[in-house]
């Protein structure tokens, strides 16, 4: 069966199309869990290795548990044990407590966690409910893309956009880090997607990337000049630049406004739930991600609503 025949089946049977995207997105969500957990650890290992070379220190074993990063015990353990390979593929999925491998059928998105009843089959250590949540979230947002754009190349681009955003949202939430390994590819993919004006004209996409970066960079510099503090990270600049590359410069104000509203509401909720001091920083990336995803689908409706109800 060739590609055209498959496309014809999808067009004739929309339910098959939606179910296919749902299943595919659930599988991708399972992989996103790996990226969200391992990429920060991989970056930490790379930074430590560079520091060892620069300072001519003895080489240490790479960290394989992000909860152990930057601790003295982990550094001592690294010095006493041999090197291990740690990337997105190796080692295989295993329990973080007893290190026993997870059987393939327990890696089935959502169902695997349910079959395990949220516990390791070997040591009964609790497995975070965030794993099936991210899988379900990826599946649901994948369905939105498939429903919104139908059987088209726009859906494929929207899926890529969504998967990147989910990764960055949770990594920034965990580590207050937006890796260049995600923000920069997302920016270039946005320009590539709009090479043929898929979502916006290419010149609007280029200006969106430029103004997206400069707008937050200027706010950062002004805030630092007035307060002597850094209000956000450079990853936020690159993320907004990437969003501008996908949606054009016209969407930037909408994204900033939505992210500010979302940040104000969720920021207060997070502070209350965690009982945190108001001076403790909260990552801005997740708010940009939420605002960017909303604007990707409904920015025109939001602008039209504003012009109709708030502008005389």
UniProtKB/TrEMBL annotation:
MF terms (GO), sorted A to Z: hydrolase activity
EC number: 2.1.1.-, 3.4.23.43
Keyword Chaperone: no
Subcellular location(s) of the protein: Cell inner membrane; Cell membrane
Main location: membrane
The organism's place on the tree of life at top rank: Bacteria
Catalysed conversion reaction: Typically cleaves a -Gly-|-Phe- bond to release an N-terminal, basic peptide of 5-8 residues from type IV prepilin, and then N-methylates the new N-terminal amino group, the methyl donor being S-adenosyl-L-methionine
Keyword Hydrolase: yes
Topology relative to the membrane: Multi-pass membrane protein
Domain Prepilin type IV endopeptidase peptidase: start-end pairs: 159-268
Domain Prepilin peptidase A24 N-terminal: 23-149
Segments passing through the bilayer: 15-39, 131-149, 155-173, 185-202, 208-227, 239-270, 282-298
Matching Gene3D superfamilies: 1.20.120.1220
Function per UniProt: Plays an essential role in type IV pili and type II pseudopili formation by proteolytically removing the leader sequence from substrate proteins and subsequently monomethylating the alpha-amino group of the newly exposed N-terminal phenylalanine.
Record-stated family: Belongs to the peptidase A24 family.
Record-given protein name: Prepilin leader peptidase/N-methyltransferase
Organism: Catenovulum sediminis
């Amino acid at each position: 069966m060739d590609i055209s025949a498959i496309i014809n089946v999808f067009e004739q049977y929309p339910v098959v199309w939606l179910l296919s995207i749902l299943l595919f997105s659930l599988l991708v969500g399972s992989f996103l869990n790996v990226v969200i957990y391992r990429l920060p650890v991989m970056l930490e290992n790379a930074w430590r290795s560079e520091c060892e070379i620069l300072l001519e220190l003895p080489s240490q074993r790479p960290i394989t548990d992000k909860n152990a990063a930057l601790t003295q015990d982990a550094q001592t353990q690294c010095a006493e044990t041999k090197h291990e390979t740690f990337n997105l593929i190796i080692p295989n999925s295993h329990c973080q407590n007893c290190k026993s491998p997870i059987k393939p059928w327990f890696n089935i998105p959502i169902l695997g966690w349910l079959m395990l009843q949220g516990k390791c089959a070997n040591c009964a250590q609790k497995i975070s409910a965030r794993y099936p949540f991210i899988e379900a979230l990826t599946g649901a947002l994948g369905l939105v893309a498939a429903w919104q754009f139908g059987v088209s190349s726009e859906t494929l681009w929207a899926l890529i956009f969504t998967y990147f955003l989910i990764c960055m949202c949770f990594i920034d939430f965990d580590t207050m880090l937006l890796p260049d390994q995600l923000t920069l590819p997302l920016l270039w993919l946005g320009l590539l997607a709009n090479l043929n004006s898929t979502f916006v004209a290419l010149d609007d996409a280029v200006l969106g990337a430029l103004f997206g970066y400069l707008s937050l960079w200027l706010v950062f510099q002004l805030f630092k000049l007035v307060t002597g503090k850094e209000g956000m990270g450079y990853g936020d600049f690159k993320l907004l630049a990437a969003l501008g590359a996908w949606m054009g410069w016209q969407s930037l104000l909408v994204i900033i406004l939505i992210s500010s509203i979302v940040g104000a509401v969720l920021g207060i909720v997070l502070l209350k739930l965690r009982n945190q001091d108001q001076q403790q920083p909260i990552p801005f990336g997740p708010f940009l991600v939420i605002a960017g995803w909303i604007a990707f689908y409904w920015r025109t409706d939001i602008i039209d609503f504003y012009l109709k109800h708030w502008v005389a």
